[in-house]
What we know:
Helices cover 40% and strands 11% of the residues. It contains three helices and two strands; from the N terminus they run H-H-E-E-H. The protein has 94 residues and is of the alpha+beta class. Strands 1-2 form a two-stranded antiparallel sheet. The chain has one domain (3-88). The N and C termini lie far apart (34 Å).
Amino acid sequence: MPRGKRTGGLYRALRAQVLAEEDFCGECRLPVDKTLSGRLPWGPTVGHLIALVDGGPMLRANMQLEHLRCNVAKENRRRAQRRRSRAATPSREW
């Protein structure tokens, strides 16, 4: 999904709803300080349970509050798993 889709009005409205409703990180279960900038490692961000690039829907039920560092770590794990699965399957049958 193009990056522009995540910055639209729907995403902003859902993000505001998640920030208002949740207080704990969906990954590490620690409290999230919503007064911090979202650019700081312990700052608040909204992550998707099923990544948009994996076909996850842009729905409130697919979103959760996370620390930025937890969100980045989750994305790194997802990418590493995709690399491993691609490396395990040959590109052709010989």
